Amino acid sequence: MVHPSIPPAAASFLEFINASPTPFHAVHNASERLEAAGFQRIHEKDNWEGQLKEGGRYFFTRNQSALIAFTIPKGWKEGAGLSIVATHTDSPCLRVRPVSKRAKAGYMQVGVETYGGGIWHSWFDRDLSLAGRVIVTDKTGTKFTSRLVNLKRPLLRIPTLAIHLDRTVNDNFKFNQETQFIPILGQVASQLNGPATLEINDKNPVIGVAGSNVQTNHHTSLVELIAEEASASPENIHDFEL
């Protein structure tokens, strides 16, 4: 919650940042603000001839993750100069792998990959959550819709060893991103009553199967959390980007 003493412009900016944990959320929220400011949404596939007018304000989006907004000043003539301002909607983060289901030492793990130039050692021992977009199918499996999700609660954690297990940690903290940078979701025992899967053990840590479905490639607990946030049934989750 933004403190009431913060200047309105700063408060509005912080509200936008807090509500935009992913590019998909940022574009969605920016679109709403543009429409509230009088901008008209247009589409790339449409014929713009005769649609754009002097004094008009327009915007369009691409892949739910990019947004282009522009205005046409009154009296503008073809060949006149342009002023362009550009930014990005993404930030360094961890992204859930297409096959994320992993397990080790009795714990469910979620395979992730790094995105961007993050200070990755600062991600250890922090509460981590999930946000992004989910592709949901209808009961017939022929219609797909995209829904934004933002699970605003601690779900995952990447732990470090206690100091007595690694006395050199304060001298030079290094880690393997493939084997030591894997968030823990919970204990395997908590999922024993879920659907049958491949055997979960240290010899078989990656238990998803590339090319199969979401329910096979990710832990049941993870899919159920995402489905609940997306107001959908787990079996109707077709894909996601988190």
TrEMBL record:
- Cofactor(s) needed: Zn(2+)
Q: Name one GO molecular function term.
A: metallopeptidase activity
GO terms under biological process: proteolysis
Q: Which domain of life is it from?
A: Eukaryota
**Keyword vocabulary terms for this entry:** Aminopeptidase, Hydrolase, Metal-binding, Metalloprotease, Protease, Zinc
GO CC terms, sorted: fungal-type vacuole
Protein name per the record: aspartyl aminopeptidase
Q: What reaction does this enzyme carry out catalytically?
A: Release of an N-terminal aspartate or glutamate from a peptide, with a preference for aspartate
Q: Which InterPro entries match?
A: Peptidase_M18 (IPR001948), Peptidase_M18_dom2 (IPR023358)
Signal peptide from the UniProt entry: none
Q: What class of enzyme is it?
A: hydrolase
Gene3D superfamilies reported in the protein's UniProt record: Aminopeptidase i, Domain 2, Zn peptidases
Question: Which organism does this record belong to?
Answer: Rhizoctonia solani
- State whether keyword Metal-binding applies: yes
The answer on whether this UniProt entry bears the keyword Zinc reads yes
**The family this protein is said to belong to:** Belongs to the peptidase M18 family.
Q: Return the EC number.
A: 3.4.11.21
